[in-house]
Amino acid sequence: MIYLDNAATSFPKPEKVYQALDAFARQNLANPGRAGHKMALAAERALDDCRHLLNQLFHGTEPERFVFTLNATDALNMAFKGVLADGDHVITTDLEHNSVSRPLRALELAGRIALTRVRADGGGTIDPDDVKKAVTPRTRLVALTHASNVLGTVQPIEEVGRMAREHDLLFLVDAAQTACVLPIDVQEMKIDMLAFPGHKSLLGPTGTGALYVGPRARLRAWREGGTGGDSSSETQPRELPYFLEGGTPNVLGVAGLSAGVKYVQERGLADIHGHEIALMDRLWRRLQEMPGYDVFGHRDGARRVGTLSFRSAALPAAEIGGILDQAFDIAVRPGLHCAPYIHRALNTFPEGTVRVSPGPFSTTADIDQLADALAQITM
Q: Considering only CA atoms, which of 139, 127, 147 is closest in space to residue 165?
């Protein structure tokens, strides 16, 4: 199969990821920190090693502030429900994935918070001044995607981060589409909490992710339970990461995640980003040559990730996706992409669009075969 759905989950993984998962499962898959034997110590080291890798990658203040989660959704819920209190005001955007939109909307409907959703412009980018204008005396948090999972457009998080810090607000960034694609420095960008999955551009397995909790963020515990080291405390130990990591972590997945991060570091973020942008631009040019196709978002490769969404005047998105899968063995993502607000703004609701997202191992031949298939489908 030609796999072009990397914005959902990267595939294939680097060979070193498969090797790391197999070796760890066979040799060191014990409960980390729960015993003094060699396998338990090796499992704990795997967690520590990955925290150090993430701390170097994102320039955190210390490795212990990277809390392992199931995915970005888990990390975002941990952040929202850990820092928000009744009466708080939150600023977000219409670009957000449901991992941001749904928990915030649920809190708003419950009467617990007030919510302002800043709208992106026609090219798919928000204006930092609009975020600033939305600040009220009750504003507690700004929650913003780094890049739209529908349009691929990169948002001005540095400017928003500076504004949030000037107003003493917490700043949460959803880096699901940019972690290990674009450089992220949580200190330079004034990011208080960074949520990201391990299974997308970090090239790790599903069931992995993390939340960076900066020094300004004070969270309530997301779950309570065993922490391995301190068993005597009646409540969750306050030290990070254990305060937010109750229960046995996915240490096998984290071992694979470390291998994925190492691959990205060896190949280089700029190389991967440039490769994916070039493939996206190649497809965009081909679509422009065909009648009846509309592509969404701006075309500035320096302010995009390698994700492209389009629709056809001839066929619905779901039908195109089904034909590509069944007749051409090509995997893309039709629909609303868990981001209904931006589709309403684009007037593509409820049908959605066809999203194409190449990855590090996609080729120009993959893109050309997709373009040829689209030409056949709508001719």
A: 139
What's the one-letter identity of residue 266?
Answer: E
Q: What is the DSSP letter of 290?
A: S
The catalytic position among 315, 323, 338, 377 is 338
**Of 73, 18, 53, 93, the residue nearest 266 (C-alpha):** 53
Residues with Cβ within 8 Å of 261's Cβ and at least 6 positions away in sequence, in order, are 50, 53, 54, 57, 180, 202, 203, 204
Distance between CA 10 and CA 13 in Å, rounded?
7
Q: Are 7 and 200 in contact (CB under 8 A)?
A: yes
pLDDT, averaged per 10 consecutive residues of the chain (379 residues), comes to 98 98 95 81 94 98 97 98 98 98 98 98 97 98 98 98 98 98 98 98 98 97 76 81 91 98 97 98 96 95 96 96 98 97 97 98 98 92
State yes or no: is 338 an active-site residue.
yes
How far is Cα 97 from Cα 131, in angstroms, rounded to an integer?
18
